[in-house]
């Protein structure tokens, strides 16, 4: 899958590459104990969050649970601090810019609610769906983000089973670029086989 995706100019290619570099840095940090690898992990996240703001949550999550991999409290704390402080330094210009424009703290993007609604609204099948509430664009940008988040959570709350179905569709679309699949006909055996192949390939790439 990585070799296949590498020939397409998709916006997910660089965030995926950043994620691999971050995990590689954590592995090298365990093997060498060098603080430079810890700092590199933080720098990698600092660059990555400009491409995908949710990479910051990914970095904090991995750093927190890396205790079970590093088996060292001090190293885990250093990695966690690196994954928080260094990206924060990188994001400082963006935060200042957002505060100057919106007069409030905006940690990442104002499009999170938009994308969240697009992928989970009642008419979505897991991919792009250009159905939005009427006159939504007339609402101020940061307020619109909040409104769309609230509406999306309400949709999920009303039909949680459909949300789980959408998660499966998104996984297929993300892993195999299955943009026009009939998701109802995708068997669990097919999904298991492809997922296993994906894990094997990524495992081999990661430890080359």
Describe this structure in words.
By secondary structure, this protein is mainly α. It has helices at residues 2-5, 13-32, 35-48, 55-65, 67-70, 73-102, 112-120, 141-158, 160-176, 188-206. The protein is globular and about 55 Å long. It starts with a helix and ends with a helix. Mean pLDDT is 78; it is low at 179-191 and 200-208.
Concise summary:
With 208 residues, the chain is mainly alpha-helical. It has ten helices and no strands.
Topology:
Elements: H1 2-5, H2 13-32, H3 35-48, H4 55-65, H5 67-70, H6 73-102, H7 112-120, H8 141-158, H9 160-176, H10 188-206
Helix pairs in contact: 2-3, 2-4, 3-6, 4-6, 7-8, 8-9
Unreliable residue stretches: 179-191, 200-208
Largest sheet: none
**Approximate shape:** globular
- Assess the beta-strand content as a share of residues: under 5%
Order of secondary-structure elements = HHHHHHHHHH
Based on the model shown, name its key terms.
globular, 208 residues, single chain, mainly alpha
């Amino acid at each position: 899958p990585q070799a296949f995706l590498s020939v397409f100019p998709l916006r997910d290619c660089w965030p995926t590459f950043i994620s691999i570099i971050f995990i590689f840095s954590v592995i090298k940090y365990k093997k060498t104990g060098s603080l430079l690898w810890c700092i590199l992990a933080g720098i990698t996240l600092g660059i990555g969050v400009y491409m995908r703001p949710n990479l910051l949550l990914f970095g904090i999550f991995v750093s927190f649970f890396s205790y079970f991999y590093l088996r060292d409290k001090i190293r885990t704390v250093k990695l966690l601090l690196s994954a928080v402080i260094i990206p924060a330094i990188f994001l400082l210009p963006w935060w200042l810019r957002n505060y100057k424009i919106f007069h409030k703290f905006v940690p990442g993007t104002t499009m999170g609610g938009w994308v969240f609604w697009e992928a989970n609204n009642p008419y979505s099948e897991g991919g792009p769906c250009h159905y939005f509430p009427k006159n939504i664009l007339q609402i101020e940008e940061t307020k619109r983000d909040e409104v769309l988040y609230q509406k999306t959570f309400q949709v999920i709350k009303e039909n949680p089973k459909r949300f789980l179905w959408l998660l499966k569709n998104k996984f297929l679309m993300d892993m195999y670029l299955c943009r026009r699949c009939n998701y109802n006909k995708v068997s669990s055996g097919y999904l298991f086989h492809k997922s296993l192949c994906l894990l094997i390939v990524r495992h081999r790439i990661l430890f080359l």
